[in-house]
Write a structure and sequence with these properties.
- The chain has 223 residues and is an alpha/beta fold.
- The chain is 33% helix and 22% strand.
- Strands 3-2-1-4-5-7-6 form a seven-stranded mixed sheet, sandwiched between helices.
- Helix 4 links the parallel strand 4 and strand 5.
- The longest helix has 14 residues.
- It is globular, with a radius of gyration of 17 Å.
Length: 223
C-alpha cells in the first residue's frame, strides 16, 4: 500500500496537466455536464479529494459553492489550481487519510479511486462519513471497471479502436501478468462497492460513464 502511494505521488509530482483524454474547454464543459448529473445542483459545501489542477472546478459548478475545499497529493497540481482559481482553500494530502473538522454536503472524487487499494478505499469512506452532512453524498466518479479492462487494454473502447491487434493484445498480456505497471491503477468491480456499502450500511447507486465506456460512477448515501 505504502509503495503504491509513493509510486503515484512520484508519478504526479511536477505535473500540471491532469492527463485527461482531451485538454480543451469543450471537453471540460461536456464532461462536467456528465459528472454534475450525479449531484445537480451543486451543494453548498464541497470537499473534493484529488482535485488536481482544478480543470473541472468551474464546469462542475464548484465555484458557486459557499465552501469548497480541494485536496491533492501533488503540490504542483495545487499550485496550478491556485494560479487559475485564486482564493480557493487547498490542502496537500492523500484521499484515503484526509480528514478535517468540517462537514460537507458533497465529498467528491473524479478519476482518483483507481489509485487506492481496497483497504485505502475503506479508510477513505470511513473518514468521509465522519465529515459528511446528514443528508450528504459521497460520490466517486470515473472508476475503471474491471469488466471492461480486457477490451480497454486491447484498444477496442477508445480511438483508434485497435481491437484485437497484436500490439494491443501483447500489452494486455504483459500487464495482466504484472510484468508492467498498469498506469490506470486498480480496476474495481461493482461488487467491490456493494460489499463496502453493506459494511458501512450505506445506500449505493451505480451509473455508467457516457464519456468513458470503461468507467463507472458510484453514489453513496446513508441508509
Amino acid at each position: 500500500m505504502k509503495n503504491d502511494l509513493e509510486y503515484w505521488k512520484n508519478f504526479w509530482e511536477g505535473q500540471t496537466d491532469p492527463l485527461h483524454t482531451y485538454n480543451d474547454q469543450k471537453y471540460y464543459l461536456d464532461y462536467g455536464r456528465e459528472l454534475s448529473l450525479l449531484f445537480h445542483p451543486a451543494p453548498s459545501t464541497i470537499l473534493e479529494l484529488g482535485c488536481g489542477s482544478g480543470s473541472l472546478y468551474k464546469p462542475l459548478g464548484f465555484d458557486k459553492a459557499d465552501t469548497y475545499v480541494g485536496v491533492d497529493l501533488s503540490d504542483s497540481m495545487l499550485k496550478e489550481f491556485n494560479t487559475s482559481h485564486t482564493g480557493t482553500i487547498l490542502h496537500q494530502g492523500s484521499a484515503d487519510t484526509y480528514k478535517d473538522s468540517n462537514t460537507y454536503d458533497l465529498i467528491f472524487t473524479n478519476g482518483v479511486i483507481q489509485y487506492l487499494s481496497i483497504d485505502m478505499l475503506r479508510n477513505q469512506i470511513q473518514n468521509a462519513l465522519e465529515m459528511l452532512a446528514e443528508n450528504g453524498a459521497i460520490i466517486h466518479s470515473s472508476i475503471p471497471w474491471d469488466k471492461m479492462r480486457k477490451q480497454y487494454m486491447k484498444g477496442s473502447l477508445t480511438p483508434p479502436y485497435l481491437g484485437n491487434g497484436i500490439k494491443a493484445s501483447l500489452l494486455y498480456f504483459v500487464i495482466s501478468l504484472g510484468l508492467k505497471k498498469d498506469k490506470m491503477g486498480r480496476w474495481y468491480s461493482i461488487n467491490d462497492f456493494k460489499t463496502i456499502a453493506n459494511e458501512f450500511n450505506l445506500m449505493v447507486k451505480f451509473y455508467g460513464s457516457m464519456y468513458y465506456p470503461y468507467r463507472f460512477h458510484v453514489v453513496l448515501k446513508r441508509s
